[in-house]
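Quick one, tokens below. Sequence please?
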């Protein structure tokens, strides 16, 4: 089965409520869909959101990188040559992690379809059921308490609290939410680079000293502040997870070796695709460092690929943060992975199992 063409489409789904972090506010899930055509008429699907302030990638830059730079290297290749295709994708251009991730998702979809098996089985098998946490957007305390209680009433057992706007308000937010819901839910904090290392130690020691128990604190400091992450890890008991500091497998090796992080957050859009995510999961497991699988604010094509990876790498990926599709008002993708609040169920169709995608707007590059 040979790759014959690559085309693009757009998929937009309105959010149930706006998504707010220390870095941005978003109203819709907007994915670029990458469709790989083959000489057998089988299609492979991948996708990527535009996350300029996280990855540096926009839908325009992703299309350019795929259409003008990476695509010509893989057109004509046989999908059975998975490793060779991924090597071409990874080495055709530096950076551009979202373009590589979207392409690799479509390639792995086709590769599993070639062997008529669900992707997670091709990646080693596992349980086709996952349970995700849900994001509580940063807001005023009453709104965050209401959102947290709503999520618990919907069956979520783990809440990921977004903070990082200003330190004293953040401490108050975390304390109030912990007071209200800690007996009913596990709490994770995501500061999204909003604090300095010293602020983090101050805030976390204060919270720890008044009995606030958190499963982890994610990326409190700027992405390039590895010394800051280590400074924090040495001074607080709450496990520290690297997110924006952990893009590539090489960065993860540095984080582990320097003792800067206790947990690694893997996202396909950061690490440049499934082939690299597998490397991170494996090298973290070798060091007894657990991984989270996360996603951007993105829909169910890319997140399905992350779910298949998590199912197959369960011994390494023990924390699941794949709530992107469940934040949308509906799922336009028919077949494959079912995202129902905290419950993620992988289908048994070949590849990602996608049967149809509603509301696809075909794009012609350049647009
Ligand atoms: Mg994060």
């Amino acid at each position: 089965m040979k790759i014959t063409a690559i085309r693009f489409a757009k998929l937009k789904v309105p959010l149930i409520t706006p998504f707010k972090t220390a870095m941005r506010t978003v109203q819709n899930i907007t994915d670029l869909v990458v469709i790989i055509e083959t000489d057998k008429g089988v299609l492979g699907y991948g996708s990527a959101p535009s996350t300029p302030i996280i990855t540096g990638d926009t839908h325009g830059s992703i299309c350019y990188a795929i259409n003008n730079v990476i695509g010509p290297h893989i057109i004509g290749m046989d999908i059975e040559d998975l490793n060779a295709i991924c090597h071409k994708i990874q080495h055709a251009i530096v950076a551009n992690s979202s373009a590589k991730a979207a392409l690799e998702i479509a390639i792995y979809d086709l590769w599993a379809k070639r062997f008529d098996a669900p992707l997670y089985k091709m990646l080693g098998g596992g349980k086709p059921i996952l349970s995700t946490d849900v994001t509580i957007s940063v807001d005023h305390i009453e709104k965050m308490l209401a959102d947290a209680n709503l999520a618990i009433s919907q069956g979520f057992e783990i809440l990921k609290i977004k903070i990082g706007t200003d330190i004293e308000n953040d401490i108050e937010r975390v304390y109030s939410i912990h007071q209200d819901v800690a007996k009913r839910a596990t709490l994770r904090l995501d500061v999204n680079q909003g604090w300095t290392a010293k602020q983090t130690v101050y805030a976390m020691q204060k919270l720890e000293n008044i009995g606030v128990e958190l499963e982890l604190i994610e990326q409190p400091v700027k992405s390039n502040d590895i010394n800051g992450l280590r400074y924090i890890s040495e001074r607080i008991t709450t496990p520290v997870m690297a997110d924006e500091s952990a893009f590539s497998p090489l960065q993860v090796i540095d984080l582990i070796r320097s003792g800067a992080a206790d947990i690694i957050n893997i996202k396909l859009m950061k690490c440049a695709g499934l082939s690299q995510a597998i490397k991170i999961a494996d090298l973290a497991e070798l060091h007894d460092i657990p991984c989270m699988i996360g996603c951007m604010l993105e829909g169910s094509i890319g997140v399905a690929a992350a779910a298949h990876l998590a199912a197959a790498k369960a011994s390494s990926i023990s924390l699941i943060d794949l709530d992107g599709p469940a934040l949308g008002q509906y799922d336009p993708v028919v077949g494959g992975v079912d995202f129902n609040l905290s419950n993620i169920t992988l289908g048994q169709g070949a590849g990602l199992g996608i049967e149809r995608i509603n509301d696809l707007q075909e794009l012609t590059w350049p647009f």
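DSSP finds twelve helices and 17 strands in the chain. Residues 274 and 346 are 17 Å apart (CA to CA).
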